[in-house]
Amino acid sequence: MSAPRQESPDDSTPDSLPAIAADLLAWIHQNDERAPAWFLDRGIVSPEMAAALAAAPAPRAPAEVTVSPVTAEPAATSSAADDATPAAAADPAFAAACAAFVAQTLALIDREGVPAGGTLPSDPLLAAHGGDKAAALAALCAEVLPCTKCALNTTRTHTVFGVGNPDADLVFIGEAPGQDEDLQGEPFVGRSGQLLTKILGAIGYTRDDVYIGNILKCRPPGNRDPLPAEVEQCEPHLRRQLAILRPRAICCLGRVAGQTLLGTDASLGKLRGAVHFYAGIPVMVTYHPAALLRNPGWKRDTWDDVRRLRALVDALAAR
Ligand code: SF4
C-alpha cells in the first residue's frame, strides 16, 4: 500500500510569521497590484504581521524560466506571447522569460499540429443538451455520483464530481478528494483549497473563472495514493468531463495528478516547467497547494508556474 500523501491538509505545519512575511513580500514583488490588494484589503494584517513585514528580507530576484526540452527550437516571435499578463508585466525579467516560454510553446503546438480544444471526441451529452456545457456537465454529474465502478464507493461520504465555470479556459486537476472534500462533496476546500483560491487570485482568477476537479472522484482511505485499478475505472469520468469542458489548458496540482493524467513516472521536478499534452490539450504541472502548506519555500516556484500558465492561456485565447 502506498504511503499517505503529504498533501493532507490536516497534518500540515503552519507557516511561521517571518516565513509568511517573506513569502508575502516575494508575492507582492512578483505580482501586480492584485497581490497586495488581495492581502491588505482583507484587513488581515495584524500588528505582529506588520512588524514581521518590516523585518523581512528583501525578495529574491525573479527566477529564470525553464523551457520544456520538447520546445528546443528557437522561439518564433508571437504577438500573442508579447501580451504579457498583468502578473508578469510588473516584473520585466520574468515577463520576458514568460513571453519566450509562451512563444516556444505556441511554436510547438503549431509544429505538431495540435488542434485547438484537443482531440477528445465531443461527449454525446453535449449534443443531447444542444451544446449547453452546464447542462451536459449536470447530466454527467448525475451519472457519476452513484458510481460503484471501484471499491472506493464503499468508503466515500460523497462523490466529488467537480465545480466551476463550464466555459472555463483553464481546468485544475488534483489527484483525489481528501477528508474535507469527501465530507463536503466539493474539491479543494479546507486550508489547501483556500490557498488554491489565493494562487488563482494572484493570476487574476477567481474560483468561478476556472473549473476544478480530481482524477478520482472518491476519497482513497487515509489519503493514500490512487491505485492503478481505481484510476483505470475513474479516468473515463474525467475524460468525459474534459470532452464537455474542452478547456484551452489543464493544470495538474501535484506529482500524482501529473503522473496519473500524463501516464508517466517522471518526477515533479521533470514535469514542472514543461508543457505536456493530454488528448491534445496543453498541460502544465505544479505543486499541490496542500504540499505548499507543508513546504512554504515552494510557493515562489508555484507562483512562477501559474504566471506562465496564465500567460499561455491568454496567448491561446488570443489566437
Ligand atoms: S473513485 Fe471513480 S470509479 Fe471509483 S467509485 Fe468513485 S467515481 Fe466510481
Bound molecules: iron/sulfur cluster
How many helical stretches? 15
CATH class: Alpha Beta
Radius of gyration: 19 Å
Mean of residue pLDDT values: 80
Q: How much strand?
A: 5-15%
Plain-language structure description:
- With 319 residues, the protein is an alpha/beta fold.
- The protein has a single domain (15-317), classed as Uracil-DNA glycosylase-like domain (Uracil-DNA Glycosylase, subunit E).
- The chain has 15 helices and 6 strands.
- The longest helix is centred in the N-terminal third of the chain and has 21 residues, at 92-112.
- It starts with 16 loop residues before the first helix and ends with a helix.
- 47% of the residues are buried.
- The protein binds iron/sulfur cluster (SF4).
- Iron/sulfur cluster is lined by residues 144, 147-150, 152-153, 159, 216-218, 230, 233-234, 237.
Please give a handful of descriptors for the protein shown:
six-stranded mixed beta sheet, globular, Uracil-DNA Glycosylase, subunit E, 6 strands, binds iron/sulfur cluster, 319 residues
